[in-house]
């Protein structure tokens, strides 16, 4: 039997009160250009109140006790004590549940610049004036998966909707909270719900006919209305009723949470846009980010495009070949490679491709030995056989990669060993580990769009979502979502005048369309660099290029108003990327020795020509800036080879700031 891992214990009331879309926070999906509206979103921290959506005011009265043996206080001291009491009470009142810290009022409106209107990726939401009821949900046995919890509640509504729920359509957050636009005909009730047994790691195909029983208890927790939210949006009430916004946000997210893959506040699915290859056994899915926010325009739903990395649905051997760039799959894995493979595949679901019926397993590890040497005992508790022999005898399958380890499912006490080549990764599993630079670049390229294209795609996403056709949103809760982007007044401010050193031919410049250059200009505060050096990690550059590059860069820095010593402390170094940390440490050590006793005690700047392959920038910066204390300037080898004046100007500006 494959074990199902639990992701956290029972949260109780704290879990129930968590805002929609909460839970474990995943690595951010890529949503460049997301507009942030005013006010706190539905995912802000802090539990909502239990009794009502209107927070009751509290009182706090400090008291001052005096000793009986002490002399009576004077009039001045009594006044001071009274004033102190008032000050303490005023400070304590800021923490009262019923009082809020009122932000300062806007002093006025802009007058400078050209007035215009811009479209923001916000869609105005109108909510009907209804009473909302909050019910606590307790499912037994406890369920770790939100998806399974939603299946349980969906079946409950289907079975008992007309007979016991008063034909109400509830909105469920997947955890501990359920909301309705009217009361159930009970305050507390327990239901029994059946779900088909999942075959995740089952021992035989007969398990698919079994059912799982769940007891679901619904208990009224609180109820409220839109009064405080409307007061807040009108500016009458200073505190935002976050719990009311949470109710509406759960309603708007209920349907897509069932249809799509949920990651934080975003939804992903192949039907929401074209998928693409990220490389190394991963693919990306497109989707959208959704969040309900209070703004000056009213309730607004922020929607933006997003993309996320998922495992490519391929045979496990193909994934290992792509992900780890293994060329010879006939060789056994080293202990180090075995650990890497185990770390990459642990928790991933696979399905068997050699059987007629579907069987899925969750990977818990890999076997310590190869498939041909991994032994187990048959059901007769007598016969010991290898995995390779078993698949040849049982399924007439000749394992092509007997030197590779097996995938392990189930528990350590009752493991299930599976050859990698008969297991296919199930589609729709998000990749949670850090992406490499190539994958990040591919993901950014997939989401980077011009404003017009982005607006068109966001409109298409909202049209595809079709909130008007969602019965829960439009009919049950009476909410309407505008199909047009919000129109916001704006101003195009004049560009600031830039001042350069008066010794240059151009002392001032007025930028046009956000652009200007350094031609005929000098920096107004040129820096001084006395001690510097250069190291080259590129193997493809001609050996003379680093010398020419440094000469041209020094000349450019001096021509732009800096005082840059033309002679480096050390001769230009050439090093291999495999010895990166060591080479940087050697440069630091040699420079410190040579500069000992001079006016400049340490290296001021290290110019680094990066390796030809990407992926070393972070290591270089961490070593130089945090460990060695060296200011570094990294340069791409292809740019260094061009010896472009414009590139030298840009690098000179960076060095001057550093």
Question: Gist?
Answer:
The chain is α+β, with helices and mostly antiparallel strands. Helices cover 28% and strands 24% of the residues.
Descriptive overview:
It is a single chain. With 658 residues, the chain is an alpha+beta fold. The protein folds into 3 domains: 127-310 and 449-482, no CATH class; 316-425, paz domain (Beta Complex); 523-657, Response regulator (Rossmann fold), CATH 3.40.50. It is 28% helix and 24% strand. It has 16 helices and 30 strands. The strands form 9 sheets. Strands 2, 8, 9, 10, 11, 12 and 21 form a 7-stranded antiparallel sheet that branches. Strands 4-5-3-7-6 form a 5-stranded antiparallel sheet. It has a 4-stranded parallel sheet with strand order 28-26-29-30, sandwiched between helices. A hairpin with an 8-residue loop joins strand 23 and strand 24 (508-509). The longest helix is centred in the N-terminal third of the chain and has 19 residues, at 75-93. The protein is flat. The two termini are 59 Å apart. The model is unreliable at 1-73, 91-99 and 201-208 (pLDDT under 50). Residues 1-10 have a biased composition (Basic residues). Residues 1-83 are annotated as: Disordered.
């Amino acid at each position: 039997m494959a074990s199902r891992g639990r992701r956290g214990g029972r949260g109780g009331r704290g879990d129930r009160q968590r805002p929609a879309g909460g839970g474990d926070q995943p690595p951010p999906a890529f949503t460049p250009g997301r507009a942030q509206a005013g006010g706190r979103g539905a995912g802000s921290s802090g539990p909502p109140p239990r009794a009502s959506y209107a927070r009751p005011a509290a009182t706090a009265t400090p008291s001052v006790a005096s000793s009986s043996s002490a002399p009576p206080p004077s009039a001045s001291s009594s006044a001071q004590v009274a004033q102190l009491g008032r000050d303490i009470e005023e400070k304590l009142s800021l923490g009262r549940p019923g009082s809020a810290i009122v932000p300062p009022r806007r002093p006025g409106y802009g007058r400078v610049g050209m007035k215009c209107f811009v479209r923001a990726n916000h869609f105005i939401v109108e909510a009907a004036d209804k009473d909302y009821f909050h019910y606590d949900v307790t499912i037994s046995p406890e369920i770790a998966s939100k998806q399974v919890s939603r299946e349980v509640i969906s079946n409950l509504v289907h079975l008992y909707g007309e007979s016991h729920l008063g034909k109400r359509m509830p909105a469920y957050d997947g955890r501990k909270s359920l909301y309705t636009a009217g009361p159930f005909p009970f305050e507390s009730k327990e239901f029994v719900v059946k779900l088909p047994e999942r075959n995740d790691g089952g021992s035989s195909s007969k398990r698919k006919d079994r059912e799982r029983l769940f007891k679901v208890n619904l208990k009224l927790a609180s109820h409220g209305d839109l009064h405080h939210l409307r007061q807040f949006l009108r500016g009458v009430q200073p505190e935002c009723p976050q719990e009311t916004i949470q109710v509406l946000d759960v309603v708007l997210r209920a349907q897509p949470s069932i249809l799509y893959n949920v990651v934080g506040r975003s939804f992903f699915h192949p039907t929401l846009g074209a998928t693409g290859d990220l490389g190394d056994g991963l693919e990306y899915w497109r989707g959208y980010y959704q969040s309900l926010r209070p703004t000056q325009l009213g309730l607004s739903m922020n929607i933006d495009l997003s993309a996320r990395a998922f495992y490519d649905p391929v045979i496990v051997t193909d994934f290992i070949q792509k992900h780890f760039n293994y060329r010879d799959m006939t060789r056994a894995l080293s202990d180090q490679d075995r650990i890497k493979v185990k770390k990459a595949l642990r928790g991933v679901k696979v399905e068997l491709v050699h059987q007629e019926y579907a069987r899925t397993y969750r990977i818990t590890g890999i076997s310590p030995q190869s498939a041909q040497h991994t032994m187990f005992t048959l059901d007769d508790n007598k016969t010991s056989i290898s995995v390779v022999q078993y698949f040849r005898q049982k399924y007439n399958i000749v394992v092509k990669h007997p030197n590779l380890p097996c995938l392990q499912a189930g528990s350590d006490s009752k493991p299930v060993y599976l050859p990698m080549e008969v297991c296919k990764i199930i589609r729709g599993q998000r990749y949670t580990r850090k992406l490499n630079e190539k994958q990040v670049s591919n993901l950014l390229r997939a989401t980077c769009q011009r404003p017009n294209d982005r607006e068109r795609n966001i409109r298409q996403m909202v049209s595809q979502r079709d909130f008007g056709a969602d019965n829960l949103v439009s009919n049950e809760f009476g909410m309407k979502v505008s199909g047009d982007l919000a129109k916001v007044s704006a101003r195009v401010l004049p560009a600031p005048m830039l001042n350069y050193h008066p010794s240059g031919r151009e002392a001032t410049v007025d930028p046009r369309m956000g652009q200007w250059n350094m031609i005929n200009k000098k920096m107004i505060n040129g820096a001084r660099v006395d001690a510097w050096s250069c190291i080259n990690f590129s193997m493809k550059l001609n050996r003379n290029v680093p010398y020419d590059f440094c000469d041209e860069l020094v000349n450019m820095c001096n021509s732009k108003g800096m005082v840059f010593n033309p002679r480096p402390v050390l001769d230009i170094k050439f090093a291999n990327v495999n010895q990166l940390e060591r080479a940087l440490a050697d440069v630091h050590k040699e420079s410190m020795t040579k500069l000992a006793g001079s006016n400049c005690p340490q290296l001021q700047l290290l110019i680094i020509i990066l390796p030809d392959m990407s992926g070393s920038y972070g290591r270089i910066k961490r070593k130089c800036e945090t460990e060695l204390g060296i200011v570094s300037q990294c340069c791409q080898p292809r740019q260094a080879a061009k010896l472009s004046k414009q590139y030298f100007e840009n690098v000179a500006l960076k060095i001057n700031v550093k």
